[in-house]
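Hi F.,

I've been meaning to write this up properly since the lab meeting, where we talked about keeping a consistent format for the predictions we share between groups. The idea is simple: the sequence comes first, exactly as it goes in, then the C-alpha cells exactly as they come out, then a line or two of notes. No screenshots and no reformatting. I'm using this chain as the first example so we have something concrete to point to.
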Amino acid sequence: MAVAVALTTSVVAVVCALVLDLPLRDPDGFLGPTYVRLPLIAALLLAVDVLPRAVRRAGSPRTVLRQIVLVARERWPWRQLRPILIGLGAFYVTYVSYRNLKHYLPLLRPGLVDDQLTASDRVITGGVAPAQILHDLLGTGVSAHILSWVYLAFLMFVPASLGVVLIMKSRAGQASWYVTALCLNWALGTASYYVLPSRGPIYVQPELFRDLPQTGTSQLQDSLLVSRVIMLIDPQGTDRLNSIAAFASLHVSIIFTAALIAQLTIRSVTVRAVLWTFFGLTAIATIYFGWHYVVDDIAGLAIGGASVLLAGWGTGQLRGRRLRVDVLRESDVARTGRPRRPFRRRPEASPSAS
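Output, unedited:
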C-alpha cells in the first residue's frame, strides 16, 4: 500500500508540474536533502546495531573490519534489508510529491477560505480567537519557548521515528504499518490542502501574535512567508518552495498516528505516555503560534485516524490475531493487575480410556 500511495502521489505531482511548467524539486531542510538524511539516519541506526557486536567479537583491532562485515551479513541479510529500502523509498517519493504539490497550491488553488475558517474558530470558542485564549492562559514568556521547541521537534521526530521502526527486527509488521500510515498522512493531507486552501491565523491576523517573543518558530514563520511571496512573484525564477497551508494540520495527524500505533503495539507505558504528551503539546502549539485553526487540528485527527485504520488493514495488522491478543492481554493487566490465562481446550477422552 505504501508503494501504491507513492506511485499515485508522484504521478499527480508530475502532472501538475507539467501543467504549470515547473520543475519537481527535492525539499531541502536544515538537516540536508531528504534523499541524504533518511538513508543516513537508517545507516547510523544500523551501525549502532552492528558495531558493538563486531567490536566484542574481534580478538584484535586488525579483525574489527572483518567482523563488521560478518555481523552485518548475519544480522541484516538481504531479505531483511529489502523491506527497509522499500519503506524508505516509498516514504521519500511520497514526501517529495507532497512537498511539491504543496508548493503548487497557490498557483492551482488561488482562492482562500481563511475568512470562513476564522469564523468557525470564533463560533467554537465563543467569539474569542483561540490563540488569544491560550496566550492569556499560558502566558507569552517561557511557555512560548517551550512550545516552540515542541513544535520544531517534529522536524526531527519524523525521520528519526521512521529510521527506528524500520530497523527493529522483531517488529517488521508494525514497521510496515507505521511507514504506510505516514505515506497516507502525506497523501490525504495534500488532498485536504486543495479542498480548503488557507494560510493560517498567523498570516491573516498577525496582530494577535505580536506579543510573542522571538523563537525558532517565529523565525520559521517569517521565512516561510518570504518564500511564499518570492514564489508568487516569480515561480519560474526561484528555487524557494511554498510551504504554507493551514487545513489540515499534518503536525497533529502524524504525531497522532505515531501515538495511536504505539498505543496498539508497544507495551512500554513510558513510551506511550511520552508520545501522547508530545501529541497534546503539539496540538496546543499549532493554535498558540497561529499555524492552524481549530478545525485544522480536528481534520488532522481525522486524517491520522483514517491513515492508521487504512494502513492497518492494508498491511494486515488490524486483521492479524496477534495484535488483538496483545491488546486484550494489556487490557486485562490494566483491569485486574494480572494477565489473562490463555484458553486451553480440555483433551478429549480416548476410546480406550472410556
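Notes:
The CA atoms of residues 51 and 120 lie 55 Å apart.
The two ends are 55 Å apart (CA to CA).

If this format works for you, I'll send the rest the same way.

G.
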